[in-house]
Design brief:
The protein has about 190 residues and is mainly alpha-helical. Helix content is about 70%, strand content about 5%. A two-stranded antiparallel ribbon has the order 1-2.
Length: about 190
């Protein structure tokens, strides 16, 4: 074989390898998107904390997380750390973090703050018109700035504005549902 033929073969082989590489990348990118879509195939029913998902181990872990938040109200501990919760439900910090991020599309602190905001609203509505500091602390917040930013994030209103709106409604004997202001967990999850 002469040099010209070898050169042509090497160009063809290089082109083929490049084409295979691109096809491989596109295939796995599409497969990854499909896998992400499948991992979002779950249903959370807040009333009974049932969870359907593709993986029974993940389902079991998510069920435990929901139970800790909804029934045990672990978020009211202002010093709650992801490692503490992981230890109490029998997993490690990384698995717990991945489960929270993957299923709730929130990080651990955001999930805690979501439940804290709901609890703060519940305390204010159900236990009387208490000062903001009281419902902030009892729901698990330590810092006013964290409380205000989380409250605004999950309700779309500042705590002061929300408090005024709810106080007026309660004074008119209107029924106030927390779900009107803070969405249910299943609605918070990005689909």
């Amino acid at each position: 074989m002469n040099m010209n033929t070898i050169h042509k073969i090497s160009i063809i082989l290089s082109g083929t390898v490049a084409l295979l590489f691109v096809a491989h990348k596109l295939y796995f990118k599409k497969l990854k998107k499909r896998t992400v879509s499948k991992s979002k195939m779950y249903l959370i029913n807040s009333a009974d904390s049932s969870l359907l998902c593709e993986n029974s181990e993940s389902s079991y872990l998510i069920d435990k997380i929901i139970r800790c938040f909804e029934q045990d109200k672990v978020y009211t501990n202002p010093r709650l750390k992801i490692a503490d919760l992981a230890k109490s439900i029998g997993t490690n910090r990384n698995y717990l973090s991945r489960a929270v991020n993957g299923y709730f599309m929130l990080n651990f602190n955001q999930l805690c703050n979501y439940f804290r905001v709901r609890e703060a609203c519940r305390i204010y509505v159900e236990e009387g018109l208490l000062p903001r500091e009281v419902w902030m602390r009892r729901s698990g917040f330590i810092s006013s700035s964290s409380f205000s930013s989380s409250f605004s994030l999950f309700t779309g209103r500042s705590p002061a504005r929300w408090q005024r709106e709810v106080r007026l409604r309660l004074q008119k004997n209107e029924k106030v549902s927390i779900d009107e202001y803070v969405g249910k967990l299943k609605d918070m999850i990005k689909k």
